[in-house]
Amino acid sequence: MPIRSRPAGCAQHRPKQLDARGLNCPLPILRTKKSLSELASGQILKINSTDPGSVKDMQAFAKQTGNELLSTTENGGEFVYLMRKH
Amino acid sequence: MEAKKMAIIATKGTLDWAYPPFILASTAAALGYEVQIFFTFYGLQLLKKDLSGLKISPLGNPGMPMKMPFGPKWFKGLNWNIPNAVQSLVPGYENIATSLMKQTIANNGVASIPELRELCVEADVKMIGCQMTVELFGFDHREFMDGVEYGGAATFFEFAGETDICLFI
């Protein structure tokens, strides 16, 4: 699974997980925001979502909040995002 | 950098129209906006402590698909086109439509209105109730949730005049 690969420099940290599967707009974004608030700057959050609308929304969220969307992967209707806290 | 600001005027008091103000307010707050919602006329229903009275009405609303939230796929896909005259005669029609809508909302992983409102409160969205409407409709402040401030049009403009986004819903 490609999503298991961790970005360089964070090898010692396991990304914090957010299971947003089954949730619809705007909950994946609101849960992401909440989960990020519990992380330190530079830490990475892994988000699982089944909401197709979340693809654009995660990009828009990252752009507007300064958090970095490292990757987006899709696997059979499930979306996985890696986001680094600003 | 100063936070962006958004003001919303919420004027509708039905279950369906409760969504736009709370979705936009909670999302804007998550994006770092400072948000105020001014609840006026029927919008005051969204501030009630008990939100279980919020209903939808398919009557006179040709835009609302009437589909069942249960059963096999072909059955769920049926659109029940019930004439207005029949809707208005059947006792409890709105209650039935409302409970079907709530089931559909839950089936789709969409947040409930109490949940969304709570997320707004947690995100420090400021709620203002229109004092004139409170009196006009004979409401009592005790019927409304804690933390609501009451004011009039001038109170709204004090914040709205400085916003980046201002919506009337």
Map the helices and strands.
The complex is a heterodimer of chains A (86) and B (169).
Chain A: E1 16-20, H1 27-37, E2 44-49, H2 54-65, E3 68-75, E4 78-84
Parallel strand pairs in A: 1-2
Antiparallel strand pairs in A: 2-4, 3-4
Chain B: E1 5-10, H1 19-30, E2 34-39, H2 73-76, H3 84-89, H4 93-107, H5 113-122, E3 126-130, H6 131-136, E4 149-151, H7 153-160, E5 165-168
Per CATH, the architecture of chain A is 2-Layer Sandwich
Total count of domains of chain A:
1
Going by helix content, strand content and strand pairing, the class of chain A is alpha+beta
Give the biggest sheet of chain B.
5 strands, parallel
Low-pLDDT ranges of chain B? none
Q: How many DSSP-defined strands of chain A?
A: 4
Q: Taking Cα atoms only, what radius of gyration of chain A do you get, to the nearest Å?
A: 12 Å
Q: CATH topology of the domain at 5-53 and 112-168 in chain B, what is it called?
A: Hypothetical Protein Ychn, Chain: A
Shape of chain B: globular
Largest interface: A-B, 15 and 11 residues
Number of helices of chain A: 2
Q: What is the CATH superfamily label of the domain at 5-53 and 112-168 in chain B?
A: DsrEFH-like
